[in-house]
Design brief:
This protein is α+β, with helices and mostly antiparallel strands. It folds into 2 domains: about 290 residues, 4-Layer Sandwich (Nitrilase/N-carbamoyl-D-aminoacid amidohydrolase), CATH 3.60.110.10; about 160 residues, no CATH class. It contains 6 helices and 23 strands. The strands form 4 sheets. A 6-stranded mixed β-sheet has the order 5-4-3-2-1-12. A 6-stranded mixed β-sheet has the order 6-7-8-9-10-11, with helices on one face. β1, α1 and β2 form a beta-alpha-beta unit. It is globular and about 70 Å long. It binds the ligand NC(=O)CCCC[C@@H]1SC[C@@H]2NC(=O)N[C@@H]21. Ligand LRUESNKD binds next to loops. This is Pantetheinase-like. GO terms for molecular function: pantetheine hydrolase activity. It holds the Pfam family CN_hydrolase. Keywords: Glycoprotein, Hydrolase, Signal. Belongs to the carbon-nitrogen hydrolase superfamily. BTD/VNN family.
Length: about 475
């Protein structure tokens, strides 16, 4: 079929009160069943609305902040999908698997693909020199059950976040599966920041849709969930189904159904702790669509022009631990260039009116980010500073009043992996309000519907990354 209906569910996870002390397997299952009760309602609702597939969040069944011992009662042995297993009809085939049984039955009884995030355990012994001291590998794992309840995909998260000390790093896996409504790939949360497996799935294996269970804490001004995940879908030109966990204490909200041309449906809620089901229709094979966006040469425009108005007004300030070079946009309109190392960023803009109590800056960063993960960035950004004090530029701010009637942002990137972001006041996306030109300009010709928080070209220069922790020598 040419199109299909996708659902993502932002789940307000019910957390265990005690994650420092081990609980019994029965108590662990009781908590997981409480979460699965809620997920089951969403699965039924999605199926009733015609969805072919539903994605649920990372950590959505057992929560977070465990030790290796305290996560253990929540884990199940998840077999390789090649075994052809329907846990709903043959639950004990590989030992106790109540969580897989329940997810499989949800998929089967509602005739819908179900994507969930659970924990896998694999026993090992001293014949394996890498076997952990406690005799088992523990993996953060995405599973997919097809509409008959068969396990069709198992993915072990490769890029663990800094807090996930209770899981092991697996070898990299590139997990795909085929359906009548397209070819799917699976990865999770921090994976989106790295080359493997994310870029391999989208570029080399050419999946149509990425399934993305996540537990993403929002980090403005560049890394809120809806902002970065929709930008990645546009930059990589794939469908992207992102289901975030909802938890205000760790700033988690922001789920969406994104296409190569921009957001199709999204949700960002800081008002309540409620869950939220999103449903939308997508192209099954977006690269065959007449509207599929052309490949972009991200540096073509920026390297072809002379620097706009050189200035000695540059200053530095920090975005999420990275020292950017900035210049203030003092006039209602202008053309400016700001450079850091090899990266020069060009901006042409016209504001609707200059608000005296708001400061906007153009910024550039070319360097290795080293906090909560190590990855090489090249970023050009136009953003609103938190206050009129230039030292606050780059600090999180969620509202703005300044409208831009037009802008054009470009940069002399050394990488072809650039993710275009436009984030508006109230942490809202701007579907259809900007364009990516094939020469690498991110432009808005008619302005945006709300005031601007951030416009960015978020570049990842993967070749400059240090080795992955799994590959690094001890
Ligand atoms: N569960 C995860 O793997 C989350 C990882 C991504 C978190 C992103 S990366 C930069 C920001 N820091 C955060 O705390 N959240 C954002």
């Amino acid at each position: 079929s040419d199109s299909y209906i996708a659902a993502v569910y932002e789940h307000s996870v019910i957390l265990s009160e005690e994650t420092n002390l081990p609980v019994s397997p029965e108590d662990a299952l009781e908590l997981m069943n409480k979460n699965m009760d809620v997920l089951e309602i969403a699965v039924k609702a999605a199926a009733q609305q015609g969805a072919h597939i539903i994605v649920t969040p990372e950590d959505g069944i057992y929560g977070w902040v465990f030790t290796r011992e305290t996560i253990y009662p929540y884990l199940e042995d998840v077999p390789d999908p090649q075994v052809n297993w329907i846990p709903c009809t043959d639950p004990e085939r590989f030992g106790p698997a109540p969580v897989q049984k329940r997810l499989s039955c949800m998929a089967r009884s509602n005739s819908i693909y179900v994507v969930a995030n659970i924990g896998d355990k694999k026993p090992c012994n001293s014949s394996d020199p890498k076997c952990p001291e406690d005799g088992r590998y523990q993996y953060n794992t995405d599973v997919v059950f097809d509409s008959e309840g068969k396990l069709v995909a198992r993915y072990h998260k490769y890029n663990l976040f800094i807090t996930e000390t209770y899981f092991n790093y697996p070898e990299p896996e590139y997990v795909t599966f085929n359906t009548s409504f397209g070819n799917f790939g699976v990865f999770t949360c921090a994976d989106i920041l790295f080359h493997d497996p994310a870029v391999v799935l989208a570029s080399k294996l050419q999946v149509d849709t990425v399934l993305f269970p996540t537990a993403w804490g929002n980090t403005l001004p560049l890394l809120s969930a809806i902002q970065f995940h929709s930008a990645w879908a546009m930059g990589m030109r794939v469908n992207f189904l992102s289901a975030n966990t909802r938890n205000s204490s760790v700033d988690m909200t922001g789920s969406g159904i994104y296409g190569p041309n921009g957001p199709i449906a999204y949700h960002y809620n800081t008002e309540t702790e409620n869950g939220q089901l999103l449903i939308a229709q997508l192209n099954s094979r977006p690269h065959l669509s007449p509207t599929y966006p052309p490949a972009v040469n991200w540096s073509s425009y920026a390297t072809s022009i002379k620097h706009f108005s050189p200035t000695d007004q540059d200053f530095t300030a920090v975005i999420y631990y990275d020292l950017f070079t900035f210049m203030e946009l003092t006039k209602i309109e202008g053309n400016h260039t700001v450079c850091q190392k090899d990266l020069c960023c060009h901006l042409s803009y016209r504001m609707a009116e200059k608000q005296e109590d708001e400061v906007y800056v153009l910024g550039a960063f070319d360097g290795l980010h080293i906090v909560e993960g190590e990855y090489y960035l090249q970023i050009c950004t136009l953003l609103k500073c938190k206050s009129t004090d230039l030292k606050t530029c780059g600090q999180p701010v969620a509202t703005a009043q300044t409208r831009f009637e037009a802008f054009s942002l470009s940069g002399t990137f050394d990488t072809s992996y650039v993710f275009p972001e436009v984030l508006l006041s109230g942490v809202q996306l701007a579907p259809g309000e900007f364009q990516i030109l094939s020469d690498g300009r991110l432009i808005s010709q008619n302005g945006t519907s709300k005031p601007v928080l951030t416009v960015a070209l978020f570049g990842r220069w993967y070749e400059k990354d240090p080795p992955h922790p799994q590959q690094a020598s001890p």
